Structures are given as structure tokens and as C-alpha cells.
Amino acid sequence: MPDVRFLTEKILEDAKDGMKQILARADSQAEDILEEAREEAGTIWSRMKERALRDAEAEKRRILSNKTLEEKKKVLAAKQGMIDKAFDMAAEKLRTMDDEKYEEFLAGMAVELSTDEKARIFVAYNDRSRLSPDFIDHVNMLMKKAGKKTVLSYSDIDYDINEGFIIIQDKYQIDVSVNALLSSQREEIEGRIVEMLFL
After folding, report:
1. Tens digit of pLDDT for each residue in 118-159?
2. Which run of H or of E encompasses 123?
3. Could you tell me the residue range of the domain that residue 57 belongs to?
4. Same domain, 130 and 158
5. Distance, CA of 113 to CA of 134 (rounded, Å)
6. Rounded Cα gap, residues 36 and 112, in angstroms
7. Does one domain contain both 115 and 164?
8. How far apart are CA 196 and CA 29, in angstroms?
9. How far is CA 3 from CA 7, 8, 156, in A?
10. Tens of pLDDT along 163-199?
11. Those residues with Cβ within 8 angstroms of residue 104's Cβ, 6 or more apart along the chain or in another chain
12. Are residues 29 and 104 in the same domain?
């Protein structure tokens, strides 16, 4: 049965590999920008020899500061783009996962997130053809193996989700759509990705 942490670590590993490539390109671009800024500052310095040393130093600092700020903005935009791409890739991996593995993943999530009570489950229309006819029976068997008393049945209420499912219980609903899963994990994972990128 797939483990959310295993999937999370896999997403982090894929994101880290992709981000390393982008960071290498970004570092190369950053060096080019710094070199260009140094050359420009040197040219301005030469033209301003006649002026007071204080004015020339101020201009040089201003130019370097602006170039550095532009460089930082470009690098930050590239890093944020990579974070977004990593989550898009994770969602795509879930969407294109082998049907059998995807069914086991959903079954595992249902078992993990259900409480000890009767519940209904709404499976996204896009996923219904991916799941075997005995999906609910399989999930209920896994519930018993896990020592849970939950018994799931299909819901007759429709929800607007593309992939995944929603567990409907008496007092609350648990959104286990792909978008909800990624959103709930994004803050924690994004913090780790940012640490990897900025260190």
C-alpha cells in the first residue's frame, strides 16, 4: 500500500533534481549579469574620472545594487517557477499512474483518513473508469485489516473534483482530491524545497 510519505519524498527528490538543473543555469546567468554589471560600472567609472571621487563611487554602488536586485528577482522567479513545476509534475504523476497502483494509493488514503464510523465516498468521475468494480469492497477489507470499523459505501451526492475522492461522514467531509492532497502538502513540502534552493 503506497505511503503518502514515500510519495512526498519522491516528489521532493524529483523536485530537487529538477531544481538543481535550473539553479545551475540560474547561477550561470547570475554570473553573466554580475560580469556585465562590473563592466558597465568600470566604463562609467572611467567616464567620470573628472568628477569628484565621491560622486563616482555613489554611481558605481547604485548600478551594482540595481543589477544585483535584478539578478535576485530573476533567480527568485526561476526558483518559484521550479517549485510550481514540481507540484505540477507531482499532480501529473498521480494522474498518469498505473491504474492498479492508483487504486491502491486511493484505497490506502481512504483507510488512513477514515474514522471509526459509517461513511460514504464520492469518487471523481474521471477516476471511476480507473477503479475496479470491487474498489469499495477492497477498501472495506483493508479497513478491517487495519482494525477500523469504518464501512464505506458510494455517495449519491455529486462533488466538483477532477481526481480522487471525498469521504462524507456525519459531521464532516474529507477532501482527498489530487488538488486537495497537493495543497495540504504544499506548505510543508514547499518549505523544504525553499530550504534546499536557498542553502
Report:
1. 888 889 888 888 899 999 999 999 999 998 888 888 888 778
2. strand 118-123
3. 4-96+185-198
4. yes
5. 20
6. 55
7. yes
8. 19
9. 6, 9, 29
10. 888 888 888 888 888 888 888 877 777 777 667 766 5
11. 1, 2
12. no
- DSSP H helices, the chain, are 4-47, 53-95, 99-113, 125-128, 135-145, 178-198
Q: Are residues 111 and 48 in the same domain?
A: no
The verdict on 92 and 189 lying in the same domain is yes
Instruction: Provide the domain count of the chain.
Output: 2
Q: Rounded distance, CA 129 to CA 132, Å?
A: 8
Chain-wide mean pLDDT for the chain? 80
Quick count: other Cβ atoms within 10 Å of Cβ 161?
A: 20
Same domain, 74 and 132: no
| Block residue for cell numbers 478491517 | 144
